Amino acid sequence: MIRARVIGAGACLPSNVVTNDDLAKKMDTSDEWIQGRTGIKQRRIALPGEKTSDLALGAARAALTDAGIDAGELDMIICATTTPDESFPATATIVQARLGMAHGAAFDVQAVCSGFIYGMAVADSLIRTGAARTILLIGAETMSRLLDWEDRTTCVLFGDGAGAVVLQAHIGLGTNADQGILNTRLFSDGRLHDMLYTDGGVSSTQTVGKLKMQGKEVFKHAVTNIAAAIAASAAASNIPLSEIDWFVPHQANQRILDGTAKKLSIDPAKVISTVALHGNTSAASVPLALVTAIKDGRIKRGNLVLLEAMGGGFTWGAALLRW
Ligand code: ACO
Questions:
Q1: Taking residues 209-226, what's their average pLDDT?
Q2: CATH number of 2-171
Q3: Per CATH, which fold does 180-322 belong to?
Q4: Please, what is the Cα angle at 197 between 195 and 201, to 5 degrees?
């Protein structure tokens, strides 16, 4: 049976660190409020002129180096982003060109903060059906460009960055012992649009719009939906949650991470958290957290790793991998 196995991972963050105290100099907020409500201590904000494709390219190069392959071996590039450089073409094609890749296919996936999980499900399907052997999957965002910097209830939560993995076909036995993606589970409910959206777009206002959010409602749905996605993914492979070594969640808010772990009786020590350093980087947050835990040696070959996310739409989902 063909499995999609991660053979390399990499990340790229803007150099510009913005702390809570930096924000407090510009708006009516405080380090105490932001840390207490969210766990966020700092975030990276792209400098003027620094684009999503710049971060995506940095993460892509790091992932290719980690995998020990060059772009010539890729069949496809998928970029999960809600902050593309341009309305079209896809940011993935910009990365493709900058990698010097003149073959294969490149396209973007838009599922906001769940984009990396959605992209992983697409990549997994393409690899398992034999349509592609090697896929570069990127999550990249410049969320700072979508924020209303006059709205302290939202602008303190987000940051910019990119993470990427290289997925490659690998022959397994079709059991849970196989390395690679064991299953993915995707969900959405478009009726919940008004809880998290941008008040603009190409076909409506011909502007980009700014992020709007009903924070308390998002919080409640996040814990419920993420817990359901985790349970669905574990059940799909008939694996008890207690056997999963690492949970790599979308990094929206430490209280969402803690609430979800509590709801499912997951040991908090198994939950990778980078929210303090990165804030919410939307589709980049899962791969950024993943790369952190790979590089610091927590995630090791053979571990069971569950990735999960929720975002605007609402969209949510999970992916279970044997590392
Ligand atoms: N600094 C200081 N005070 C603030 C700030 C701020 N940045 N923002 C709001 N406040 C004030 C409010 O004005 C309010 O003051 P009041 O009581 O005088 O009216 C008070 O703090 C409480 O505001 P609430 O909105 O009730 O705060 P809450 O406890 O709900 O926390 C938060 C807000 C952190 C946004 C929370 O609702 C949350 O985490 N929601 C989840 C949202 C999220 O993570 N979204 C990410 C996208 S979706 C996803 O990725 C899963």
A1: 96
A2: 3.40.47.10
A3: Peroxisomal Thiolase; Chain A, domain 1 (3.40.47)
A4: 155
